[in-house]
Amino acid sequence: MSEALLFLNRGEAATVEALACRIMPGDESDPGAREAGVLTYIDRGLAGFFRDQQGFYREALRELDRHCGEQHGARFAELDEGRQDAVVGELDTLAREDTSHSLLGRLFALVREHTVQGMFCDPAYGGNRDGAGWRLVGFPGAQWGYRVEQMRRGFDATEIPLSTLADLRDRAERGGDG
Length: 178
Known about the structure:
With 178 residues, this protein is mostly helical. Helix content is 57%, strand content 0%. The chain contains nine helices and no strands.
């Protein structure tokens, strides 16, 4: 992580990022959670809008690392990807079967939700770095509107230049409409 952490400590951040990277894996040529800056989005969220979830994240991340230590001999972030995937499979099952009582199931469901948000939010919120998530699905980002032909079925939205909220603000300040 290159950006300063606002809420998570380094160990928690490593666990969150490793979990997010198993939910949305990627690499330089096919961006996933790491490349899109999902950890930054989650950390900023926990320092701000998601602050009511701080205690839950801290407790559940400790429990995940304790569970992985007992079952696999290492913290989640220290496991190889194959063992991380096995743990993610367990967590996914817990999340689908009993979200009301399983701390780890609830953690997985929440991190999965925050990972998706961080992949596809506007970059202003810390995730979707360089529009990685939007490019992944062919979404042109923030737009003032669309022309009639752009609204027609079958139109390839990747033809529209990618635009962020910052881009729209900059255009508005320069007096342009887009």
